[in-house]
Design brief:
Bound molecules: 2-phosphoglycolic acid
Number of domains: 1
CATH topology: TIM Barrel
CATH architecture: Alpha-Beta Barrel
Helix content: 40-55%
Radius of gyration: 17 Å
Strand order of the largest sheet: 1-2-3-4-5-6-7-8
Strand content: 15-25%
Order of helices and strands: EHEHEHEHHEHHEHHEHEH
Distance between the termini: 20 Å
Number of strands: 8
Shape: globular
Number of helices: 11
C-alpha cells in the first residue's frame, strides 16, 4: 500500500561533474527495480546538471536538501521553491538534524517550509530525531512528538498523506551505529500513532516513514522488514553508486 522510498542525501559532497558521473552509474543499476521509489539529493550546485540527466526519463527522482520558505526576496544565500521546481526537483529534505544543530533551524521554520513545499505540489521529507543525551534521558518519544507536531502544524490534515517523515536518531547519523530494528519500529509506530492523532488513521496509514542513520547494504533488509519502516534516508552509503544500488535492491 505504501511504496517504499530510498533517498540518498549527498550532503556537501560532489561537484556537478562528479554528481553526473555518480547518477550515470546509478541509473542503470536501479532502473529495473520495481516497486521502490528512488531519489537523490545532490547539493544545490549539482541540481541542474543532475536534473538534465534525469529528465531524459530515468527512474530516479531529484530532491533538494533544503529550501527557503519565501519565493523570492532579500535572503542572501537562500534558494526558493520555484527555483528548485525549475530544475526538476520534486522532493525536498527539510529539518535535517545538521540544519537544526549547525544552522539553527527551528521546528517552526521546518513547518513553514513544509507548507510551502506542499503548496507547490512537491514532497517534503521532514526529518525528526532525538540526540543521544535525549535518548539517555528517556526523552526520545517526547522530542520526536514535539518536532513532528510543530512541523505539521501549518499543514492541512487533508494533505498529510503526501508528506514523508524521516526518523533519524542523531546518534546514528554518520556514526556507523544504527538503531536496532526494534528501536526503529518502536519509534516509527509512535510516529504513525501521532500522525493518526493529527490527521486521522486513513491519512496516517498512507504516510511513508523512512529510517535514517548509518543505513547500509547489510542492515537495510531487516529495517525494511519492520511493518512501519517504509524506506530509508541514506547519507554516506549513497555516495557510491554500487553501494546505494544494493540498498535500493534490498529485496534481492
Ligand atoms: P548516514 O546519514 O547514512 O551517513 O548516517 C544519514 C543522514 O544524515 O541522512
Amino acid at each position: 500500500m505504501r511504496t517504499p522510498l530510498i533517498a540518498g542525501n549527498w550532503k556537501m559532497h560532489k561537484t556537478a561533474a562528479e554528481a553526473v558521473d555518480l547518477v550515470r552509474t546509478l541509473v542503470p543499476l536501479v532502473d529495473a527495480v520495481e516497486g521502490v521509489e528512488v531519489a537523490v539529493a545532490p547539493p544545490f550546485t549539482a541540481l541542474q546538471a543532475v536534473g538534465r540527466l534525469l529528465r531524459a526519463g530515468a527512474a530516479v527522482l531529484l530532491a533538494a536538501q533544503n529550501v527557503h520558505e519565501e519565493d523570492h526576496g532579500a535572503f542572501t544565500g537562500e534558494v526558493s521553491v520555484p527555483m528548485l521546481q525549475d530544475l526538476g526537483v520534486s522532493m525536498v529534505i527539510l529539518g535535517h538534524s545538521e540544519r537544526r544543530q549547525l544552522f539553527g533551524e527551528t521546528d517552526q521554520a521546518v513547518g513553514r517550509k513544509a507548507a510551502r513545499v506542499l503548496a507547490a505540489n512537491l514532497v517534503p521529507v521532514i526529518c525528526v530525531g532525538e540526540s543521544l543525551a535525549q535518548r539517555g534521558a528517556g526523552e526520545a518519544f517526547a522530542v520526536v512528538e514535539r518536532q513532528l507536531r510543530a512541523a505539521l502544524q501549518p499543514i492541512d490534515a487533508s494533505a498529510l498523506a503526501l508528506v514523508v517523515i524521516a526518523y533519524e536518531p542523531v546518534w546514528a547519523i554518520g556514526t556507523g551505529r544504527t538503531a536496532s530494528k526494534e528501536q526503529a519500529q518502536e519509534m516509527h509506530a509512535h510516529i504513525r500513532g501521532l500522525l493518526a492523532d493529527i490527521g486521522g488513521r486513513k491519512q496516517a496509514d498512507q504516510v511513508r516513514i523512512l529510517y535514517g542513520g548509518s543505513v547500509n547494504p547489510a542492515n537495510i533488509a531487516e529495517l525494511m522488514a519492520q511493518p512501519d519502516v517504509d524506506g530509508a534516508l541514506v547519507g554516506g552509503a549513497s555516495l557510491d553508486a554500487e553501494t546505494f544500488a544494493s540498498i535500493v535492491r534490498f529485496r534481492v
